[in-house]
Design a protein that fits this description.
Strand content: 15-25%
CATH architecture of the largest domain: 2-Layer Sandwich
Largest sheet: 5 strands, antiparallel
Distance between the termini: 58 Å
Radius of gyration: 51 Å
Helix content: 40-55%
Strand order of the largest sheet: 2-1-5-4-3
Structural class: alpha+beta
């Protein structure tokens, strides 16, 4: 495929008209010539600036020496000597000091003293703050670059002002500048050739860039798809090393990508998946199974696993790929559906039975009351009649709960804060908790949004959960109640106790009607609690460990969310 693409590009390049390349060269040549001229001019400017700076430094050096000599009462002789010594530095043709009329007061060549210098210049415009310059022809060699400036003499008896001239040899500078010019021309030619080569390779580069962009987009798309797919993916190469490990695989297998990549498959995959890998190695083709995987010591996760071998177009072996999905939530939903169906059938049956039982119960209670009054004088008979009345009343309460459970729940929603309801329900059970030696702890932050609830029904839920927690702590303990907001914008009430706890095998059945571990319990309390929470579009979860206690969390949507949902429904 790649060879075919390169062949296509080559054919396209051959078909390009020659005038395209000629036009590109015609455009490039003036550009490089202009760049070369600009570079040469910049070199000249740099050379001039360098010589001016050197002349200014020498003038300032002379000025500093003269001012130092002034303190030692120098005269013309010492000034002449200073000039001679300064002019002996390499690259200096001459050093001259004149008065305002151009008469030489001191010169690096003593024979020039009293001669004239610079009379052809307009010295009246030369300032003391900035030096001027000119280029002086020299018939014996390279021209001299002259820098001059006005100074106020620190030496007495030498007039009211000086002009200092410094002649600098331009020979080395001109030689270096010529060398730079040749270098600039050579570089321009080189760049011209490079530009021509760039034009030649432009079409190939454009085609390559297009192919690379396409491949990059495809790779980005496939990487994003693999990384964010809702199924775990693990790819293994020919050497049984993990080469791909997406985010879902991290979450399910509880290993980081950095820890998994490059490791042997047997060190990353659970035991069950390793067995599937051995089946693939035996030539089993594509495998699809639901398996129970031990992820950690006490954690078992049901997984739906699809495993297959990877091969190229020539049937060459590339490795293996595993796709797996966590079935925990799906199994939970299946159990919830089965439970709902079972409870719906049970509710319909219970409603009919309750109606049939209630009428005979009223008759029994009436006869028991009659016999209690008739045999008032006989303690044994009266006691028996009282027991009959009490049992009928208890049975009637059970039937009432059963009817309440079986009837469709009607709730009247209103926006209310949870904190007052939590505290009011705690107030109701406060005495019972105190009598049982139970301490109550609360964590109720003030800034918790309101929820859309039926206050009476939610208080019934809280009372039931409080009483269950108190009943589980026969020898005293701690009842903890906290209120907060989940990251998913739901209000959560958490009720914990330090009681006997619930056995692991009983946890899936605690919301079933008539399931109870209490000798005098009806088994309908938590079933009604579950029904009320579901009617509020809430969720209730229970975690328990025998001997350590139980934690029940009830989550409810905030009032704003409920209001939005009702508005969309209407």
């Amino acid at each position: 495929m790649i060879d075919r693409r390169i062949s296509t590009v080559h054919k396209f390049w051959v078909a390009v008209p020659p005038w395209v390349i000629i036009g590109a060269v015609v455009i490039l040549v003036p550009i490089f010539i202009l760049m070369t001229i600009q570079n040469i001019n910049k070199q000249k400017e740099f050379t001039t600036r360098l010589l001016i700076e050197k002349g200014e430094v020498l003038i300032r050096s002379f000025e500093a020496g003269a001012r130092t000599g002034a303190g030692m009462r120098w005269g013309r002789f010492q000034l002449q000597k200073l000039l001679i010594e300064t002019a002996q530095q390499p690259g200096i043709d001459y050093f001259v000091v004149t008065d305002t009329k151009g008469t030489i007061l001191a010169d690096s060549d003593p024979s020039m003293v009293a001669e004239s210098h610079g009379t052809d210049l307009d010295l009246s415009n030369v300032s003391a703050s900035q030096a001027a310059w000119r280029q002086v022809p020299n018939t014996e060699g390279a021209d001299t670059f002259e820098v001059y400036r006005f100074l106020r003499p620190p030496v007495s008896g030498l007039g009211t002002g000086w002009f200092v001239f410094v002649g600098l040899d331009m020979g080395p500078i001109i030689k270096a500048r010529d060398e730079d010019t040749r270098h600039a021309i050579l570089m321009a030619l080189t760049f011209l050739l490079i530009g021509f080569a760039g034009i030649v390779s432009l079409f190939l580069a454009q085609s390559y860039r297009s192919a690379r962009t396409s491949l990059s987009r495809m790779k980005a798309f496939s990487d994003s798809l693999v990384e964010n797919m809702p199924m775990g993916l693990v790819a293994i190469d020919q050497e049984d090393r993990v080469i791909a490990f997406n985010q879902t695989a991290e979450s399910i297998l509880r290993r980081s990508t950095n820890d998994a990549l490059g490791k042997k498959a047997e060190d990353v995959l659970p035991d069950t998946c390793r067995k599937l890998l051995r089946d693939l190695e035996a030539g089993s083709g594509i495998l699809q199974k639901e398996v129970e995987c031990f992820i950690e010591k006490d954690t078992i996760i049901p997984l739906e696993v699809i495993a297959a071998s990877l091969k190229d177009q020539e049937e060459g072996f590339l490795g293996y790929v595993f796709l797996f999905r966590d079935m925990t939530e799906i199994r939970h939903l299946k159990r919830e559906i089965e439970r709902s169906q079972r409870l719906a059938s049970l509710g319909s049956l219970a409603a009919g039975v309750a109606h049939e039982i209630r009428n005979p119960l009223s008759s029994i209670k009436g006869f028991a009351t009659y016999f209690r009054e008739r045999y008032r004088e006989n303690p044994e008979d009266r006691k028996t009649a009282d027991i009959m009345v009490q049992e009928v009343e208890r049975l009637n309460r059970v039937i009432g709960q059963l009817l309440e459970y079986s009837r469709p729940l009607e709730i009247k929603l209103e926006s209310r804060p949870m904190e007052p309801l939590v505290l009011h329900a705690l107030k109701v059970v406060e005495g019972q908790a105190r009598d049982s030696g139970i301490a109550v702890q609360t964590d109720l932050p003030p800034q918790v949004p309101e929820v859309m609830i039926d206050p009476d029904k939610i208080e019934q839920v809280l009372l039931n959960l409080y009483l269950n927690a108190i009943g589980a702590m026969k020898k005293g303990g701690i009842l903890s109640v906290s209120l907060g907001r989940d990251p998913d914008r739901r209000i959560r009430v958490v009720i914990s106790d330090t009681g006997a706890g619930i056995r692991k095998e009983d946890l899936p059945r605690i919301f079933d009607p008539y399931f109870t571990t209490k000798p005098a319990g009806t088994g309908l309390g938590l079933a009604i609690v579950h029904k009320i929470v579901e009617a509020h579009d809430g969720e209730i979860r229970v975690e328990s460990e025998p001997g350590k206690g139980t934690t029940v969390s009830v989550s409810l949507p905030v009032a704003e969310e409920n209001a939005d949902e009702r508005g969309q429904t209407s």
